[in-house]
């Protein structure tokens, strides 16, 4: 049988015989064999390369699945939620510290119905927060999103969040805040002046009213002044806050159901009694501004109805984020100052210096605020020890490798900032209230302590400067006008927000002008 190997090594048959193709000369045969050899070598090389690429990847993948940190998922359904809540309702929450000791800085758990990796170390938390929009997006629990609203900034990510964020940052910018200092001071004085006629006050109630009025004024102008509408809204916000971090069980009597009902009442009240009312000339109106802005942003699919819902969520989200937090910070600052006479002395000296530098009754200015350096350290230290926001929630958008572990795609990543603020490796005697520890960093920024009170990364709190300004102005008038005395021991707890069993009830005495000190006392 005559046969010839074609260039591609095939024997071609036509009919019953073999059809010879090409020239069957020896040199051609050698060339074909050479090419054939090359082909085989190339095939083997590519295969080895592919296997070397794929095999370890699969192996890696198998390892990923077994590289979850240690931890416990707790009870069926509820996981460790009740254990965490019970711990936060005590004066010394130990849940995170115990887990950290048992399992290390990162551990797995199940909280608020979701599988999660909890991280307690400042560096890791900063890394997570800085990767917003990449490996992580916001991941607050279902109850939070439903009660606050799907279109509140903290529920949004992607383009929707970016456009809301631009508005937030712009409307809370420093240049505007600078102009608003007199309005904030006026709100502080309206709140504090009546104290002189009272025997005792609940600092919790007073600071809540003040913080609510400040943010309401910022958002809605003077349409939401003190009065019954204001009072009912504040009460509803407290119920709403309790619902935010409740298990999402929508049954009569549960905190979640009450939170949803409070949300509905707040929206109804805002629409009926506030935003539909005529606006005094010259008032700022973020409600209308936000609608205008979002209309111009023109995100795909935004109908008028959706726009209205987005605006409701925005206003509700701002009123919530801007008042519970600042009120809690003021409340705890007062407590820490009362418990630490050295701090009170230094604080008073700072504010007396500012007061005597002005004409009697002169208003505070932006420069005065910027000179309240020790007060800033007091605020920072208060937020370190009793941050109103204990946990920040994110969700992994892919399998994320972190510190030798893997956070699986779709899992929650819970940043335990309260725990990070109590890390003895970073904070000397972490449970001690010591504002002076923050002065070092002013002198030496390299020694900057890792503080996460206002979050970090692209979602850093846009209201941080407003909050600091109102707390500074509040403390200025408080320590220069009054002496406070505790009405008795109260227990402290931290859920859903840090608070005292009786609202921190204090006796108030107006200070005698002649005893006011005007020299600065430094205590080291
Ligand atoms: C002491 C007072 C305050 C504290 C401790 C605080 C804390 C925080 C923290 C930790 C975050 C980040 C949340 C996250 O990353 O998941 C945040 C975000 C936010 N805060 Fe504040 N905050 C305070 C006051 C305010 C005020 C006065 C306002 C507004 C008037 C405000 C509005 C917001 C908003 C809208 C966000 C969401 C930002 C976004 O998702 O892009 N906060 N805050």
From TrEMBL:
Coiled-coil spans in chain: none
Binding site for heme: 461
Protein name: Cytochrome P450
Main location: membrane
An individual GO BP term: steroid biosynthetic process
Entry membrane topology: Single-pass membrane protein
A GO term for molecular function: heme binding
Cellular localization per UniProt: Membrane
Needed cofactors: heme
